[in-house]
Specification:
Elements (H helix, E strand, L loop, with lengths): L3 E4 L13 H4 L11 H7 L7 E4 L12 H9 L4 E6 L6 H13 L5 E6 L6 H4 L5 H13 L3 E7 L8 H11 L2 E6 L1 H5 L2 E9 L4 E9 L10 H12 L5 H9 L10 E4 L5 E2 L2 H8 L5 H4 L15 H5 L2 H9 L11 H10 L4 E4 L1
Parallel strand pairs: 1-2, 1-9, 2-3, 3-4, 4-5, 5-6
Antiparallel strand pairs: 6-11, 7-8, 9-10
Helix pairs in contact: 4-6, 9-15
């Protein structure tokens, strides 16, 4: 029984974060929004399901029907949590969302504001305005909305943690710092457009974004070992069994599914991301399945979950010798999800 659903209700976004697959492969993105009608069709009885409005490519608040989708779900006894940069929509919209959260007692609807700094937020959250985000957070708070402030710590913004924490406290939000494996293993280059008044034109400024020292993910060494295992062509059966047995799968172990803005259903955001830019040859490997085999506009959730892929093949494919093996399953979910984000609440 599915208890959690990550919904990418939009593949569009107002930001251009340098670590985002959308920014890195913008030529592949087809901005799409899920509709209220689709959500009603797929989930005629969403009672008690926990929905996460997040995704790989977009921000949920860009979807023009975001409010309507939210109200449909929570008014039918589902739970909804947003993950958003908070930089879109006006004060009235955020006040309405906050009032809805308050009406529900704050338990069924909450927002994770992903704001990485105060004045420096724009360095990673390229194209966003901290002034607008702060205004929207205030409107949501004033209306009684329940929220968390999630702050990704980089070298360039760690000096603003205390200021952000104080503001979160004033807004009545819980504050947390977040560390991502991608940010610990990679440096990013932000391309920030700004006006050059001396030349009266828009120029692009580049800033290097790094995560070092204690700001790095605590399990970097574990993931590097997993990478070595993946590359090892002489791995033993014993090694393989140990690694495969340590996989904590969102679908099999967490009763969770991911639905992309293109209406496809996946076990997790990671395989959806791999399909987006064809990492590890996933499109070629999965071509053994019929066209649109996991498209919710063609099949119901139950029909897709009853396929051989979800019943057997996904789990079997964790073995590197399997013809459908995607090494991402090992990298992101082995060693009890060592790769995944670390979040520490104050």
């Amino acid at each position: 029984m599915i208890t959690e659903v990550e919904l990418e209700i939009s593949s569009d976004c107002n930001a251009a974060c340098p670590g985002c697959p959308r920014t890195q492969h913008i030529e592949l993105v087809k901005p799409t929004n899920l509709t209220l009608e689709q959500i009603q069709t797929w989930f005629p009885n969403p009672k008690d399901i926990q929905f996460k409005f997040c995704g790989v490519l977009g921000d949920p608040i860009v979807n023009p029907q975001c409010m309507e989708i939210t109200k449909y779900l929570v008014d039918n006894d589902a739970y909804v949590a947003y993950s958003t940069n908070g930089g879109r929509n006006n004060v009235d919209w955020w006040s309405e969302l906050g009032a809805t959260s308050k009406r529900l007692g704050g338990d069924k609807l909450k927002v994770h504001f992903c704001v990485d700094g105060t004045e420096s937020n724009y360095i990673y959250r390229v194209n966003t305005s901290y002034k607008v985000i702060k205004r929207n957070m205030q409107a949501y708070s004033d209306a009684g909305g329940k929220a968390n402030w999630i702050f990704i710590v980089f070298d360039h913004n760690e000096h603003e943690i205390e200021e952000a924490k104080q503001l979160a406290n004033q807004l009545g939000f819980r504050f947390a710092t977040r560390t991502g494996m991608r940010n610990s293993l990679n440096d990013w280059v932000a391309k920030i457009k700004k006006k050059d008044n001396t030349k009266n034109k828009i120029v692009t400024e580049q800033k290097l974004i790094t995560t070092t020292g204690s700001k790095s993910h605590s399990k970097v060494a574990v993931v590097k070992k997993l990478d070595e295992f993946i590359q090892d062509k002489n791995k033993s059966q014993e090694q393989t069994k140990q690694i495969v047995d340590s996989i904590d799968c969102k679908f099999y172990h967490g009763n969770e599914i991911f639905i992309g803005a293109d209406s496809t259903l996946w076990p997790c955001c990671f395989l959806y991301d791999s399909d987006f830019h064809n990492r590890h040859g996933i499109k070629e490997k999965y071509s053994v399945y019929p066209k649109d085999w996991n498209n919710l506009n063609m099949h119901t959730i139950d029909q897709i979950l009853s396929t051989d892929y979800y019943k057997h093949a996904l789990r079997d494919s964790w073995d590197p010798q399997h013809n459908l093996h995607i090494s991402r399953c090992i990298r992101t979910c082995a060693k009890n999800r060592a790769y995944q984000n670390e979040i520490k609440y104050s």
